[in-house]
Every structure is written in C-alpha cells, then in structure tokens.
Design a protein that fits this description.
This protein has helices at residues 3-25, 35-44, 54-71, 76-107, 116-134, 137-143, 149-169, 177-190, 200-211, 216-252, 272-294, 298-314, 318-324, 338-345, 419-424, and strands at 255-256, 357-359, 365-376, 384-395, 400-402. The chain is mainly α and 426 residues long.
C-alpha cells in the first residue's frame, strides 16, 4: 500500500475514533447558555442573536430534518448536537494530516515514498496528534453540544491544512487553486465564527518561506502583510463593507426627520442602495479579475479571486434577512430590513471596546462627542428616520492606555474577577 493511502487510512481511523468517542458522550438534549437557542433556531431556520452564525444555522437545519425523519421532534436536539460531533472529529482528522505533512517534510522531504520505518514514524506521529486532539478537555467539551466552537475549530484546522497542501504543490501548475479554496473556506467560516481568521498571519509566513529566500526583514514584512490581510477581512470585509452599503442606501433611499421634513436622498424603494452596492462590488471584482488576467498580473489576479471567494462564502448571511422577513417565532433584532440587518451583522448591540489604545475602567469623562446619527426604520415612512445624534464619551487622554484590557466600568466590582478585586490582589 502506498504512503498516500496509508496516510489517508490513518487520518480516517482517527476520525472514526473521534466520532465514536463523541457520539457515545454527546448531549441527548440542550445544554446551558446558547445551545438551546441554536437548536431551536436551527430546527425551523429562525433568527438567533447577533451576529447569527448563518452557516451553522443552515447546517443545523439539515441535521434537525434528519432528526425529524429518524426519530421525531424529540430527537431534534440530539441531531443538531451531532453537528459538533462531526466537526470535532474533522478537527482531529485535519490535525492528524497536518502533523503527517510536517513530519514528512522533516524526515523525508524529497521522497514520494518514504521507507517503511520512516513511514511508521510519520504515521504514528499523526495518529498521536489526532488522538491527543480528540481527548483534549476543551475539544471534547465543545464536541458534544450545539455551539459554534467545534465547527469553527474544524474550519481553522482545515484552512491551515489546505495551506500546507498548497505549500507541498506550489511549484506545480494549478497549485493556486488550493489558495482559492482556502479563501472560500475563510469566507464560509465567517458565517460560523471569526476564529479561523487568526490563522492568516501564519498562512502569510508559510507563503513567504515557500516563495522567497529567508531574511529577517522579509519575515517581518510577510508577517506584517498577514496582519494587514487579517485587518482587511476582519474590518474591511466583515465590517466596513456594511458601512459602504449603508452609504449607498442612505443616498438612494434617503432620510427625513420625524415630522417628514428635511428630506434627503433620491427617495427610491428601501433596499435599492444595498442592491446597487452589491452589483457595483461584484462588477468591480469581476472587472478586476478579468483585467489582471488579460495583463498577466498573477499576484493581483490571485488576490482578487481570493477576495471574491471570501465574499461568496460570506454571502451565507443573506439567509438571516430572508428568514427574518418570514416573521419566525424567534426573530431577534428583526433584521428583515436593511437598517436592522446592518446593525445585526455589525454587532452594534454589544457596543465597542478599545483594542489598541483607549480608556481604562477609571478614566475620567471630560465631554461628549458626536459619532454620527441614529436612524430608525418604520413601515409607515418611505425614508429612514433621523433619530438624533449618536453620542459617545470623550476621555481625558492622560488616563488612556495602550491595550487597555480593563476598560469597562461596569466590571469594577463585579464578582470574584472584578477589576477592583483583581487590582487589589496584585
């Protein structure tokens, strides 16, 4: 038997062990916290809390249907829990195959068929890694309940494995298809959880070491490029896309005051701006892909194709608006209209937290500052209602810090992990 077949066999054996382990220990019904909500919304494709996890919702719906067919309504919760069972088994599978890829590169980098002793070491290392992952406490905990973390972890492992598959074939014709598939998986993963995005800087380093000669400056540039791509996807695709869509919507549809005065915009039907923006975005990407192909600009062409794949994967969010408009029993935040949908996917109800620089929990407020306008959607109006200014606090700059992890004043005295207790124990 060839090494490739043995490698596949060991990986699927790990998958089988993980599936059996999780299948024997899976929760028969809903667990605490969000699990019950995910099961209920998956059962009838309803709308859970922001940001929705639409791909998890769609997958859960398929499993819920299987539960209905095989055991009736009382088996739906168990069936949806099996999404996490199979996702965590896939995580163990990809960990196994990632380990064998890395081990082969160290022990037999040039051999298509390593000798039997080397094969045994490589495959044993993959089996140990996969089974270790299987029985990790956190992985096992996530594998037996209807939450997004098992699914997201599987995407994370799959993305990294695909990058190593590309790296092993980067000198062959058509190898960039692995990168295109990887970008599509990242877009799909956004419809579950943002965790897989954190692999992007590591993926950039793999690309650099394969394509360029090593230098300290090169490593720094490659890592910085990975961080920039991460920012492009996290803040550009996932967040700023919606800001641009709202600018189109506000221009084409328009706004007005509560009394119907001070109208702005073109007065077109609701949703016109988002529709135009979608057409412009797809048209610009399509033209850019065509132009770079004709000009033989390989890297730019690859980058635009990858961006298109991310958006296509990200399009799973359309199900949130579609299902909200059917008025399901669970319809959190009512994202059936453009304004509510944009607020939903941008997670506005959770507020914001300073990441790089900002206030501490005891920073002094010195003033208020305007951060835009508040808008409302009403069925009785053909434009969006301007509902006053959106206000935020302005803090004394001297009391702000880089990486202010303790920033929320509500946590000052909140239980055993409150800031006051934490600081007093230092």
């Amino acid at each position: 038997m060839t090494y490739t077949k043995l490698n596949n066999l060991v990986g699927w054996a790990v998958f089988a062990v993980a599936t059996l382990t999780y299948g024997l220990t899976v929760e028969p019904t809903a667990s605490f916290w969000d699990c019950g909500e995910f099961i209920a919304t998956a059962n009838e494709l309803e709308v859970p809390h922001p940001p929705g996890a639409p791909l998890h919702l769609l997958t859960g719906r398929l499993f819920a249907l299987a539960g209905h067919l095989l055991g009736g309504p009382e088996q739906v919760a168990l069936a949806v829990n099996w999404v996490s069972v199979l996702a965590s088994a896939a995580l163990a599978l990809f960990i196994c195959w990632t380990t064998t890829l890395l081990a082969k590169r160290v022990l037999a980098p040039a051999a298509a068929e390593p000798d039997r002793g080397t094969q045994a070491v490589i495959l044993f290392s993959g089996a140990v890694a996969g089974l270790t992952c299987t029985f990790l406490d956190t992985v096992w905990f996530n594998a037996v309940e209807a939450e997004v973390y098992a699914y997201s972890s599987a995407f994370t492992a799959a993305v990294f494995w695909l990058m190593l598959k590309w790296e092993a074939r980067a000198d062959q014709p058509g190898s960039n298809r692995w990168l295109i598939l990887l970008a599509y998986l990242i877009g799909l993963a956004v419809g579950v959880h943002l965790l897989p995005l954190l692999t992007i800087p590591a993926l950039a380093l793999i690309y650099y070491f394969k394509k360029y000669n090593y230098s300290r400056t090169g490593v720094a540039v490659a890592f910085g490029a990975g961080v920039l791509i991460l920012g492009l996807v996290q803040f550009g695709v996932v967040q700023k896309t919606w800001d641009i869509a709202w600018a189109f919507e506000r221009t084409l549809v328009g706004t007005e005051n509560w009394d119907g005065n001070a109208k702005s915009g073109l007065g077109l039907p609701m949703g016109s701006g988002v529709l135009l923006f979608t057409l412009v975005l797809l048209g610009a990407l399509g033209y850019g892909i065509y132009y770079t192909y004709r000009r033989q600009r390989v890297n730019a062409h690859l980058g635009l194709l990858a961006l298109l794949m991310v958006y296509l994967g990200f399009s799973s969010y359309a199900i949130i608006a579609i299902r909200s408009n059917t008025n399901p029993a669970i319809n959190q935040n009512g994202p059936g209209n453009v304004l509510n949908f944009l607020s939903y996917v941008k997670r506005e109800q959770y507020g914001s937290a300073p990441l790089l620089f900002g206030q501490m929990y005891n920073s002094q407020v010195i003033d208020y500052q305007k951060k835009g306008k508040n808008y409302l959607y009403l069925d009785s109006h053909d434009r969006y209602i301007v509902d006053g200014d959106k206000l935020g606090y302005k803090y004394d700059r001297a009391s702000q810090r880089f990486f202010p992890r303790m920033h929320n004043p509500d946590h000052y005295e909140s239980g055993p992990f409150g800031y006051k207790r934490y600081v007093s124990n230092l």
